[in-house]
Amino acid sequence: MAMKSNFIQRTVTGILFVVVLVGCILFSPIAFATLFTLICVLAVREFGHLINQSGQVTVNKNITALAGAYLFLAMAAFCTQATDAKVFLPYVLLLLYVMITELYLKKPNPLGNWAFSMLSQLYIALPFALLNVLAFHNDAAVSSVAYNPILPLSVFVFIWLSDTGAYCVGSLIGKHRLFERISPKKSWEGSIGGGIFSIASSLVFAHFFPFLSVAAWMGLALTVVVFGTWGDLTESLMKRQLGIKDSGNILPGHGGMLDRFDSALMAIPAAVVYLYALTAL
Description:
There is one protein chain. By secondary structure, the chain is mainly alpha-helical. It is 74% helix and 6% strand. It is built from ten helices and four strands; from the N terminus they run αααααββαββαααα. A hairpin with a 3-residue loop joins β3 and β4. α8 (214-242) packs antiparallel against α10.
């Protein structure tokens, strides 16, 4: 009975999660920015909580979360050409505040505090902020910046299909461990199967949204799958070192924010680099 209840809870939470994420991305740029600013704040605070629980360092969760939220909104303003690069100056001041306050707090491990505070920005806040690079682009037809929800949405679709395909294929024929030291359940067969699912879905995107060629869509899917897998393994390594199963419990049956967005934290920057590389060719 408990297992059935947990399955129902996990299913309902998963459906609501997808509906809210897809709905906000497609609805409007304001809904997109509001959702991911909130997600960024929650994920950075969750990271700070996990690190603080280790007892070895102390991360200022409020300041790092504020910095993450500001970075996302500043990047949105910059990408929409609503302002210039000066919008990032308050963010720099927040980072300086984190550094300088350690001089006065007299905590036992200031170097560790600095390192993990900055890691919260590099590992979590920056990838979410880069979603804006995918979402906003110059539209030559109207000589202004346009909101394109398809690129950020595609990254999440590729990740979800890769995860689903990897689970299904891995459960059926998975024999060779992908990275047993960190994640014993993942298999090469599952990962390849998940990649095939995602690449197949890229053909659908190419058909309905031909602003990228078929080859470019397939390359984007492959990039997301490969770096998404590394993102998943990276978070697994972090949790293994911290001795925890889930990063949090904010999503019943699914764990924490980092558990849900671990793949995206590497897939998003990789997708941005890939798309910029395409334009440079």
